[in-house]
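Priority: medium. Attachment 1 of 2:
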């Protein structure tokens, strides 16, 4: 669609070349011509600053006068406008077909497969598995029962996926409008799982918002793990049960993440990091080593006393005139 038509659909204004036709969205880390890229901070644009048939979605207060050769869509709420754009460019729902055979693949009952699916040799697929459109699966892959592999996922060779796992689910991205209603951001990316990966039962790996969620080669993942949209897991990392990794994290190579660890969004970890079980990770880990982000378990009465004093630490420091003291 022409960007003037698109801008009307999202109640926005075009500044620049209004003749550009747009066919999709792209991220600021890899912007493409004839797409729209959301820019939330000016330094994002300074890193790319490409003219031509590039279109940048920004807030109406963005200093566009500094970028006279570029084309912008100006919005009062650029994140809400982006959410509406994802609905415009979301592909139609796939129509899966029940199949009884697939060349070179050992199938059990009730298998449903979409269009343009490629499966390598010596693969086996358990009961009640669904595989969406444009999925690619390598050789020697074993998929157990009740697995869902959604559209645009790519799975390498020698991969094991245990029962109940979902690959390529919608990510949890939402924008609140001025009336207090949530608008879901449709996720247009896919999931890439490299060779020699093992994934446990009932794990969920979300598709990327625009770019892909990536699981590096040799990664092992336990049961009940959630990996959110746009996450990258480095090669040969190990993730124990009930870990939650929020969106856009980059986990280094050979990381070992203990059970029930929670990692907040946009975190980066170095290679060769070990994170103790039940830790919370809310800042980047830039050096290899073992990290722990928890208090030792205590009687509840003891914990209440400690929590009380922790909440008063800033007042105590001020009272003792220790403003320059670093905890």
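Attachment 2 of 2:
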């Amino acid at each position: 669609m022409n960007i003037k038509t698109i801008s009307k659909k999202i109640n926005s204004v075009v500044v620049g070349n209004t003749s550009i036709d747009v066919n999709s969205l792209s991220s600021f880390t890899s912007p493409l011509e004839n797409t729209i890229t959301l820019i939330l901070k000016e330094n994002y644009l300074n890193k790319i600053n490409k003219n031509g048939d590039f279109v940048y979605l920004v807030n109406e207060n963005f200093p566009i006068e500094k970028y006279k050769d570029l084309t912008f869509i100006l919005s009062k709420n650029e994140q809400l406008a982006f959410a509406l754009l994802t609905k415009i460019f979301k592909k139609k729902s796939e129509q899966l077909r029940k199949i009884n055979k697939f060349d070179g693949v050992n199938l059990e009952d009730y298998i449903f497969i979409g269009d343009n699916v490629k499966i390598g040799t010596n693969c086996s697929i358990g009961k009640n598995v669904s595989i969406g459109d444009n999925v690619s699966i390598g050789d020697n892959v074993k998929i157990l029962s009740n697995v869902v592999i959604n559209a645009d996922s790519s799975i390498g060779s020698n991969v094991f996926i245990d029962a109940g796992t979902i690959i390529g689910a919608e990510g949890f991205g939402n924008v609140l409008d001025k009336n207090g209603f949530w608008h879901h951001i449709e996720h247009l990316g896919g999931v890439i799982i490299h060779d020699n990966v093992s994934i446990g039962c009932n794990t969920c790996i979300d598709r990327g918002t625009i770019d892909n969620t990536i699981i590096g080669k040799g990664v092992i993942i336990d049961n009940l793990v959630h990996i959110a949209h746009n996450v990258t897991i480095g090669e040969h990392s190990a993730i124990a049960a009930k870990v939650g990794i929020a969106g856009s994290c980059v986990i280094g190579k050979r990381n070992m993440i203990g059970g029930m660890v929670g990692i907040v969004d946009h975190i980066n970890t170095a290679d060769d990091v070990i994170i103790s079980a039940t830790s919370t990770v809310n800042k980047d880990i830039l050096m290899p080593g073992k990290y722990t982000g928890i208090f030792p378990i205590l009687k509840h009465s003891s914990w209440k006393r400690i929590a009380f004093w922790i909440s008063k630490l800033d007042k105590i420091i001020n009272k003792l005139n220790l403003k320059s003291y670093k905890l």
